[in-house]
Task: structure prediction
Amino acid sequence: MAVGEVMRMDIPAGGDLSVTSPELHVLAVDDSIVDRKVIERLLRISACKVTTVESGAMALQYLGLDGDKGASGLKDLKVNLIVTDYSMPGLTGYDLLKKIKESSVFREIPVVIMSSENILPRIEQCLREGAEDFLLKPVKLADVKRIKELIMRNEAEDCKTLSHSNKRKLAEDIDDTASSSSSSSSSSSLEDSSVKDFRSSKRMKSELSSPL
Amino acid sequence: MELGQMQKSLQDYTKSLFVEGILDSQFLQLPQLQDESNSDFVSQVVSLFFQDSDRILNDLSLSLDQKVVDFEKVDPYVHQLKGSSSSIGAQRVKNACVVFRSFCEQKNVEACHRCLQQVKQEYYLVKNRLETLFKLEQQIVASGGMISAMDLGF
Result:
């Protein structure tokens, strides 16, 4: 499996997601020792593998993006999700997000930003830069469950897209009069990060518009 | 004291912490993160909070005692403490930090000194209450009783 290619799921024809799915491996980045402990448990209880680091620099080092090592030899890292605090000394969560999205190897990994401050321009800036979602601290179990479901759903849709386009090709080969209403989901690129951003930002905006 | 009475005391005591605003609902997240694989999580994370807060309060005192106070240093400490207290549900500590930060922004040294005292007060209060809470739990467990997450929430 290539680095950055997030886990494959074997989806049977019925599209049932309850088939065995491998555990997500989450890289959690936070300078607070208390928050690291909490986020680690939140993720483990949610059946994720977790690696915690205390800074953006250490996250980049872990991923092999710090310039010292190449990104090769990291095939077994398989980070499926990065969750990072925004306000950290040195590299902020936003800086880390940018570096990840600039990397051809890691840019497909979803990044979720956490912050104790509900600052709309900050949230929008992160979503524009390609963050998958934004969590307001203190993080709760329901937040982690929601993020996990989002990530798993995106992965499943990516797989479905692939398998649908394969099936479609087959169908076209066999029968030229395949119905024109062939799955429209295969035409929308679910890897289009702007689509994800839009959906996330839509959700965030509706959440933000509720009275604080 | 008989087990049922101890358990009632624990419930009442816990409830009082919420009623007084010392703890908020975030504290109720913590027992949900405890299971057989990590049966001590709540006391571990709270101990970690105590250690971390002791360190921060010490650094804060030192920073504020400088002849020329460097608010670029002070504010991040308060931010850290605000964050960690929020994460474990220590509401009054968190709120005191919020006030503290606004005076940091104004670079008001005197007010900041008062804020530090306030934060310390709230911190020692929650520390004291939580230590008592854990003692009550230990007594129940020692008497053969069980603590359920329900005892900590209502």
The mean pLDDT of chain B is 93. Residues 109-142 of chain B form the longest helix (34 residues).
